[in-house]
Amino acid sequence: MAPSNLLSGVFRRIAALGAAARAMRSGRPSASKAYLTGGVLRLGEPRSADCVHYPTAGAVSANVRPARRSLGWQCVWVILGIMPVLGSARASNPTLKTKNVFLIVTDGFRWQEVFSGAEETLMDKTNGGVKNVQALRKRFWRETPEARRQALWPFFWGEIAQRGQLYGNQIKSSVARVTNDKRFSYPGYNEMLTGLPDPRIESNKKVPNPNVTVFEWLQGRPGMSKRVAALATWDVFPFIFNCGRSGMPIWPSWEAKPLGIVPSQTLSQLMRNTTPVWEDLIFDALLQQAALDYIPTKKPRVLFLGYGETDEWAHAGRYDLYLEAARHVDRFVQSLWELTQSISQYRGKTTFIITTDHGRGHGLSGWEDHGEKVEGAEGIWIAVLGPDTPALGERNHTEPVGQNQIAATLAALLGEDFRASFPEAGLPIADAVKPQPAR
Length: 439
Hints:
Blueprint: H1 3-26, E1 34-37, E2 40-43, H2 60-92, E3 100-106, H3 111-116, H4 125-128, H5 133-140, H6 145-152, H7 154-163, E4 165-167, E5 176-177, H8 185-194, H9 214-219, E6 228-232, H10 237-240, H11 243-246, E7 250-251, H12 265-272, H13 284-298, E8 302-307, H14 309-315, H15 319-341, E9 350-355, E10 382-385, E11 393-394, E12 401-402, H16 406-413, H17 418-421
Parallel strand pairs: 3-8, 3-9, 4-11, 5-12, 6-7, 6-8
Antiparallel strand pairs: 1-2, 4-10, 9-10
Helix pairs in contact: 1-2, 6-7, 13-15, 14-15
């Protein structure tokens, strides 16, 4: 029982005893059933072993004083008796330590590489478009899946696998998947951020999201005003977050006027002097620098970071650059984690959720694509690292988890119930939100 409920019950009992004593003293009937036994006033029906005396109006004066004294001592003993219980209840009552959550996404990065590292059949020029096969093998090929994934994502497997949780290794019966049937970016981000798929979102067109994201919703919660933001590389994100309606700050805005986040002069100049490869996407390294500038100065409590190069290099058929981009993301996440642990607002009070928006196909050419007709593109992965997530590491033989659970999980880590406002959203991932007892 919670301490508040226990206290309420105690005070209700004390009030009832007081009412019964006053009724006996005045000779009026009491709403609380009471009787005297051994000079002690008790509530309820008498037990068979009790020597019971129901005082009359004429005789009450002789009995009420001991009853009143008994009542006083009963109150003292009750309060003294519950103090250790309250202390125990308070000590065992789970308390969330998380005060900040970062949702980090690397677009279209497959679960196969996360859990098994580089795929040998794609490390060539024919199937993977690799320019320097020998250099790539030296960098990322190892004899075992465990060694390969460690070479590709050393921070994930050295830190998150030891102190957090990773879902999605289908080889070990840990399935993570999207629940929308589109299996591409906008529908995936909508599901991730709102907790449910929307059949109206059927393209990547720049259409304002009709749904309220967990980020927009959190902006209205206590202590969250102007503490929610997004940094992302793709020019559709201002529409996915519906910044026009939500007023949520985002960078880049892809417009002449910044939407709440103004980059440093150095970063702005660097962007102007960088030759773009994609017209709708900036390099991940530019986003990372923006994050390293923004976090220490603005100290957001809820932050979205969206890296995009893994998806772009896969579509281009460049397995070597796909792996390099993924290696950079691991380094970026490590840098962000170390930064947060160096700032008092974040140290020991921050959770990272790291995932992808969709999977990809498999085979010699299927790895390049995704979409509703691509088999396997529903498979994703989810990683969680933070003070309220037990260190269960790589999960195996678990119940399937869904992309639709991320929004409620993010809110639950902050002590908020997203599904109270959006009951159709997926449930929080149960094992990812288990606060330790307060000490």
